[in-house]
Write a structure and sequence with these properties.
This protein is mostly helical. It has six helices and no strands.
Length: 118
């Protein structure tokens, strides 16, 4: 768990306005620091399952906050991800998925055209 000094430094570094203490940016930054600490702890204590459960919960919460921030303020999301050096998996939209896999009807039409050519 982060001590007060570390938490205050993170708040000071990532705040969006003068009295900001709980914006998504700050929450994500604090969770990232806590995740790093827990990861280091678990490397040493491999059988500490309760801490592992806490880590999974923090990662899940950070993922939800990142998703929210991406929807609400994409510019802030991009800058925060770069500053924190977080790896984000690219999402495939439905259009991209449809473009990759042809529909069955299209395949049948292509086969019929090939047969006609022969």
């Amino acid at each position: 768990m982060l001590d007060k000094k570390k938490k205050q430094e993170i708040i000071k570094k990532y705040k969006t306005h003068a009295s900001d203490t709980g914006s998504p940016e700050i929450q994500i930054a604090i969770l990232t620091a806590e995740i790093k600490e827990l990861t280091d702890h678990l490397k040493e204590h491999k059988k500490d399952h309760s801490s592992r459960r806490g880590l999974i919960r923090k990662v899940s919460l950070r993922r939800k906050l990142l998703r929210y921030l991406e929807k609400e303020n994409e510019k802030s999301f991009d800058s925060l991800v770069k500053r924190l050096k977080i790896k984000i998996a690219k999402k495939q939209g439905t259009e991209e998925l449809l473009a990759e896999a042809p529909l069955p009807a299209e395949e049948e039409e292509e086969e019929i055209e090939e047969i006609k050519k022969e």
